[in-house]
Specification:
By secondary structure, the chain is of the alpha/beta class. It has eight helices and nine strands. Keywords: ATP-binding, Nucleotide-binding, Transport.
Length: about 260
């Protein structure tokens, strides 16, 4: 385990930022011409920082994450990252014909890890996400929460310093999501990864992040940011989490009203 965690933390403190988004705009072609989805976004994610992107559906959160991941290019502006980011989706996207361990080993293979090292590294990563002994399990044998843990382990296997997460727990039941919040916080603390996490769930954003960034809609602009000075461990039902969530929710509702969304 120590080897995996040391490699994940390697380089922390040497880079000035994990991600730097400068004056980024993004347009897509539509029936009425070019539609501006993101407008002049400037945002830095510091090394080891956990940032949540929050906003109503359609505000451009996932579009921005895809741009940072390099899956698309901005219409204007620049994006820089400390190495290639790892991306985790809402759906686990595991290969069903591979076992849990082999899904992780594939990521290690694509990264150039030697064959004789992959099994041990995959076992370390499964232990990190509290799935020790699950190397040989097929995807259909895993619960939804377990599949997302494997997906998280596979993302960490990419040895990136920046983890991009696009609503990874949205499809899970409340109890499983609550458990995975705890697990993600623990893993972030142990690995010292930088995390940019997209959600539309205000309490999830407050529970997890050091900083919450609210996007407006049509087009997406940074409306406001909050620094979350609530010590860990945090719970969804904590008074401080609830109070800040109420404040952010009111701001989010105001943005929705201003842009005529329901």
């Amino acid at each position: 385990m120590a080897t995996t965690l040391a490699k994940a933390a390697d380089g922390i403190g040497t880079a000035t930022h994990a991600a730097r988004i400068e004056h980024v705009s993004k347009s897509f072609a539509g029936p009425a011409g070019q539609q501006l989805v993101l407008d002049d976004i400037t945002l830095d994610v510091a090394p080891g920082e956990f940032v949540t992107l929050l906003g109503a559906s359609g505000c451009g959160k996932s579009t921005l994450l895809n741009l940072v991941a390099g899956l698309d290019r901005p219409t204007a502006g620049t994006i820089g990252t400390d190495g290639r980011p790892a991306l985790m989706f809402q759906e686990h996207a595991l290969f069903p014909w591979l076992t849990a361990g082999k899904n992780i080993e594939l990521a290690l293979k694509l990264r150039g890890v030697q064959k004789n090292e992959r099994r041990e590294r995959a076992e370390e990563l499964l232990e990190l996400v509290r799935l020790k002994g699950a190397h040989g399990k097929r995807v259909h044998e895993l619960s939804g929460g377990m599949r997302q843990r494997v997906a998280l382990a596979r993302a960490i296997a990419q040895d990136s310093r920046l983890l991009l997460m696009d609503e990874p727990f949205a499809a899970l039941d409340a109890i499983t999501r609550d458990v995975l919040h705890d697990e993600l916080t623990r893993i972030w603390s142990e690995t010292r990864l930088s995390v940019l996490f997209v959600t539309h769930n205000v309490r999830e954003a407050v529970r997890l992040a050091q900083r919450v960034v609210l996007l407006s809609s049509r087009p997406g602009r940074i409306a406001r940011e909050w620094t979350v000075d609530i010590p860990h461990p945090r719970r969804i039902e904590d008074t401080a989490v609830a109070e800040l969530s109420v404040e952010i929710t009111e701001e989010l509702r105001g943005e929705i009203r201003r842009h005529g969304q329901h």
